[in-house]
From TrEMBL:
Keyword Isomerase: no
Gene3D superfamilies to which the protein is assigned, alphabetical: Glycogen Phosphorylase B
Subunit comment: Homotetramer.
Transmembrane segments: none
Record lineage: Bacteria, Pseudomonadati, Pseudomonadota, Betaproteobacteria, Burkholderiales
Family according to the record: Belongs to the glycosyltransferase 20 family.
Keywords: Glycosyltransferase, Transferase
Name of the molecule in the record: Trehalose-6-phosphate synthase
Known EC number: 2.4.1.15
């Protein structure tokens, strides 16, 4: 079996790959350790041109090499802050209204992909299997192919793939799909995303799809598949239980004074439906006065991408909403929404999830949403909380024990909260068992292993003589 090469925008540090049960870094690192190989990508640093060109910096951990490069300010602005996060991210999350398109940024996006690919080539061996992650790196395989690389290359998209009518909003949509067709295997989070890609291929690229997943487009053949990313539920359950009597949990419990707790945890992102969520919680208090003073929403949302203008706006909107709602319903000893702009250690989050009666996860669009899965896994099976989940999270296709809501229906969401707050123990347990069974059936290991098994078994694209690179 050849080595595994993982390429992602950010590379986890060797320390991040250990200890945090279930994190994506742990899942990918597991496969790297088994096969040996390289994890390659951006270090997260903005550096001078001299330093950028000197890389990659290499760090060895057993059979795994961590290889990282810095980006220049211009590359960061055009590739990361620009086309990746101000064009692709909003459009792929159906927010054309928040997207901008600048030709120069798109050119920078392609340039950085080609530059990164060129750097990787020096680290490649003929039998390596290459796994590229996410929307920052769509043109990566095309760049490798143009330099003669014939190894198997797979791509996994962590975010939704939009319906063709939405994708058409990005002027170079055809080039992007042509770039995707340079992979041997494309992995999507849900069947809806896979179908959207197939629809584009057949309706807009004069391509064909046969046997449900064999695509021919732009003169190339590739396969597609659905690989739902998961967690390691039993490890999370252990972690949540182990830390349930730690001081942070006791402090929270004491401060709640017997009130019910609703927990939400997200990156501060407009795709996560935070404003809509706050308003639906306000409606619960407005329509059901018995809950005033008796239920608290804890929203943990650390800022991300705060140098992208749309992210500054969502932060302001949320601060305004939290302040307004708290002004309306607070008492001298009661604040309805506790809004924290902070990153928390995983083990702390899991034990807080276990303490709460509701996990409130309501993105407007989300590839999967691991928080929903983590919330379920962290529950005490003897007295589990209820997951209230948006139908637009990829996780909704699996977690049929959740109360599913439409995040645009504020009253519907407040009614779901009411239902969850009053749900009898037997029903909570039944729903929890259904969700846990789904998590165990399709854990993070299944996601990783099935993608890699399929990638390793796609027929070689060129001469059939084996992989390699010229
Ligand atoms: P994200 O949009 O980041 O991921 P999500 O799937 O929920 O969303 O993953 C977030 C991870 O970060 C979770 O493991 C969560 O516990 C952690 N996290 C969130 N807020 C935190 C906080 N305040 N402190 C500490 N940890 C926090 C993208 C896609 C998703 C897809 C994942 C994985 O947008 O749809 O599920 O990739 O494929």
């Amino acid at each position: 079996m050849g080595r595994l090469i993982v390429v992602s925008n950010r590379v986890a540090t060797p320390t991040e790959t250990k200890g945090s049960a279930g994190g994506l870094a742990v899942g990918v690192f597991g496969a790297l350790k088994d096969a040996g190989g390289v994890w390659f990508g951006w270090s997260g640093d903005v550096v001078s041109e001299t330093v950028a060109n000197a890389g990659p910096a290499l760090e060895q951990d057993g059979a795994v090499t961590f290889a990282t490069v810095g980006l220049t300010r211009k590359d960061y602005d055009q590739y990361y802050r620009g086309f990746s996060n101000a064009t692709l991210w909003p459009v792929f999350h159906y927010r054309n209204d928040l997207a901008r398109y600048e030709r120069e940024e798109y050119a920078g996006y392609r340039r950085v992909n080609a530059w990164l690919a060129h750097k990787l080539i020096k680290l490649l061996e003929p039998d390596d299997v290459i796994w590229i992650h996410d929307y920052h790196l769509i043109p990566f395989a095309e760049a490798l192919r143009s330099e003669g690389v014939t190894n198997r290359i797979g791509f996994f998209l962590h975010i939704p793939f939009p319906a063709p009518q939405i994708l058409l909003n990005i002027p170079p949509h055809e080039e992007l799909v042509k770039s995707l067709s340079c992979y041997d295997l494309l992995g999507f989070q849900t069947a809806t995303d896979q179908q959207a890609f197939h629809d584009y291929v057949t309706r807009h690229a004069r391509g064909t799809v046969s046997n449900g997943n064999q695509v021919e487009a732009f003169g190339r053949k590739l396969r597609t598949g659905v690989y739902r990313i998961g967690v390691f539920p039993d490890e999370i359950a252990d972690q949540a239980k182990r830390y349930e009597s730690r001081q942070h949990v006791l402090d929270l419990k004491q401060s709640l004074e017997g009130r019910k707790l609703i927990m939400s945890v997200d990156r501060l992102d407009y795709s996560k439906g935070l404003v809509e969520r706050f308003r639906s919680f306000e409606l619960l208090l407005e329509r059901s006065p018995e809950w005033r003073g008796n239920v608290t929403l804890v929203q943990i949302a650390p800022p991300t991408r705060s140098d992208v203008a749309t992210y500054q706006k969502i932060r302001q909107d949320l601060e305004y909403e939290a302040g307004r709602i708290n002004g309306r319903y607070s008492g001298l000893d009661y604040t309805p929404i506790r809004y924290l702009n902070q990153q928390y250690d995983r083990w702390k989050l899991m034990s807080l999830f276990r303490e709460s009666q509701i996990g409130f996860v309501t993105p407007l669009h989300d590839g999967m949403n691991l928080v929903a899965k983590e919330y379920v896994a962290a529950q005490n099976p003897d007295d589990p909380g209820v997951l209230v989940l948006s139908i637009f999270a990829g996780a909704a296709a699996e977690l049929s024990g959740a109360l599913l809501v439409n995040p645009h229906d504020a009253i519907g969401m407040s009614e779901a909260l009411q239902q969850a707050l009053q749900m009898p123990l037997a029903e909570r347990q039944r729903r929890h068992e259904i969700n846990m069974a789904a998590l165990r059936k399709n854990d993070l290991g299944v996601w990783r292993d099935s993608f890699l098994r399929d990638l390793r078994s796609v027929p070689l694209r060129n001469t059939g003589e084996g992989g390699g690179h010229k």
